[in-house]
């Protein structure tokens, strides 16, 4: 895909990616704007702050986040899939994206000359991830965040009792000074819960 194809084609493209790599894409449709709003509210971003987005995919959350970033704040999206990376670059020419894996976030910040983030918003499929990988990403994120930083991610409501979702809650509780769960975002398909850790 060489350019941004519009919403319907983006959804079909996303579905195709899911069918080819279900573990890494983990959803058949991009997140809704309602989930995007829940994920990006009250981040307290100010001019000069850095916000990272992990796994922006086709940019459904990026679109909401971009509207909420104050002038002079810095966005960096980190996406490992080359096709999604290309879509993002065409869809959001004013934003910066890095093609790579968030496991290497510290190195990516160094290479791109990006300061410690105030906020990290994640669309990664933590629940289906190997436990060691989940741990290394959460710990690396805690280590790069600013002191007053926020890490935010989501899980689907139906996955709440699954071992991966439980592991994620336990890990976030252990790694962050404060941890909270949102009310379910019922208008998302499937409904989701937002998890917030504060450093
Ligand atoms: C569930 S999709 C979410 C896409 C989008 N944020 C949304 O909510 O619609 C997961 C995304 O994370 C990306 N991803 C998975 N593992 C990754 C990793 N280790 N580093 C960077 N991106 C990753 C996938 O390529 C995919 O774009």
Shape: globular
Question: What is the H/E string?
Answer: HHHEHEHEHEHEHEE
Largest sheet: 7 strands, mixed
**Uncertain stretches of 5 or more adjacent residues:** none
User: Would you report the number of β strands?
Assistant: 7
CATH topology: the name is Rossmann fold
The structural domain count equals 1
- Range of strand content: 15-25%
**On the 0-100 scale, what is the average pLDDT?**
92
The H-level CATH homologous superfamily, spelled out, is: Vaccinia Virus protein VP39
CA radius of gyration: 15 Å
Give the structure's gist in a few sentences:
By secondary structure, this protein is α/β, with parallel strands linked by helices. It has eight helices and seven strands; from the N terminus they run H-H-H-E-H-E-H-E-H-E-H-E-H-E-E. It has a seven-stranded mixed β-sheet, with helices on both faces.
Description:
The chain is of the alpha/beta class and 199 residues long. It has one domain: Rossmann fold (3-Layer(aba) Sandwich). Helix content is 40%, strand content 19%. The chain has 8 helices and 7 strands; from the N terminus they run αααβαβαβαβαβαββ. It has helices spanning 7-20, 22-25, 33-40, 60-68, 82-91, 105-112, 131-144, 163-175; strands at residues 50-54, 74-79, 96-99, 119-122, 150-156, 178-181, 192-198. The chain has a 7-stranded mixed sheet, sandwiched between helices. α3 (33-40) packs across α4 and α7 packs parallel to α8. The chain is globular and about 40 Å long. The chain starts with 6 loop residues before the first helix and ends with a strand. The mean pLDDT is 92. Bound molecules: S-adenosylmethionine. S-adenosylmethionine is lined by residues 24-27, 30-31, 54-57, 60-61, 78-81, 84, 101-103, 123-125.
């Amino acid at each position: 895909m060489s350019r941004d194809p519009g919403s319907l084609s983006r959804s079909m493209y996303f579905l195709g990616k899911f069918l080819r790599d279900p573990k890494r894409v983990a959803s058949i449709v991009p997140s809704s704007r309602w989930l995007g709003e829940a994920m990006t509210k009250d981040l307290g971003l100010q001019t000069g702050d850095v916000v990272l987005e992990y796994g922006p995919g086709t940019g459904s959350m990026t679109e909401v986040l971009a509207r909420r970033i104050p002038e002079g704040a810095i966005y960096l999206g980190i996406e490992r899939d080359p096709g999604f990376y290309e879509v993002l670059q065409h869809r959001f020419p004013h934003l910066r994206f890095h093609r790579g894996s968030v496991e290497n976030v510290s190195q990516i910040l160094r290479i791109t000359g990006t300061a410690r983030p105030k906020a990290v918003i994640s669309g990664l499929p933590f629940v289906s991830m190997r436990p060691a990988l989940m741990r290394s990403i959460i710990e690396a994120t805690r280590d790069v965040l600013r002191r007053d930083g926020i890490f935010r991610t989501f899980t689907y409501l139906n996955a709440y009792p699954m071992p991966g979702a439980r592991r994620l809650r336990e890990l976030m509780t252990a790694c962050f000074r404060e941890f909270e769960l949102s009310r379910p975002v019922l208008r998302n398909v499937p409904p989701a819960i937002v998890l917030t850790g504060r450093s």
